[in-house]
Amino acid sequence: MQIDKLKHQHADILARLAALRQLTHAGVAPNAPAIAAGIVGMSAVIKLHLAVEDQALYPALQRSHDADMAHMGQLYQDEMAQLAEAYDGFVRRWNTAQRLRADTEGFRADANDVLRRLHARMQRENREFYPRIEALA
């Protein structure tokens, strides 16, 4: 199974997360327009990534003759559904500079929760999930 595109998208998303972290550390209010644009831009990449996983990766794993891999794929998909919902709420709350400026501490708390979980999930996929998928090929 070819997952190079998914791995490239992870690298892109991780770079975007790092950029958001830098902007946030430099100050939410003065960087609110760039942070909001970064969130919206990252959201587009994440939506594409999740669509590929849901429409291609997970169904392919379910059809695989490796029961452990099919089970692992189902677990990752179920877990991602919860995280995707949390991320979608995050994007809706913080997609404008005005909202960011109105509640900088709320944004920081939300970002520390949701974006850390997203980062940890992608790192775990890179370390555990993707290597197992590549080993099937």
TrEMBL record:
- What Gene3D superfamilies does its record include? nmb1532 protein domain like (1.20.120.520)
Where would I find the Hemerythrin-like domain in this sequence? 3-133
InterPro entries, per database record = Hemerythrin-like
What Pfam families has UniProt attached to this entry? Hemerythrin
Protein name per UniProt: Hemerythrin
Q: Which organism is it from?
A: Comamonas aquatica DA1877
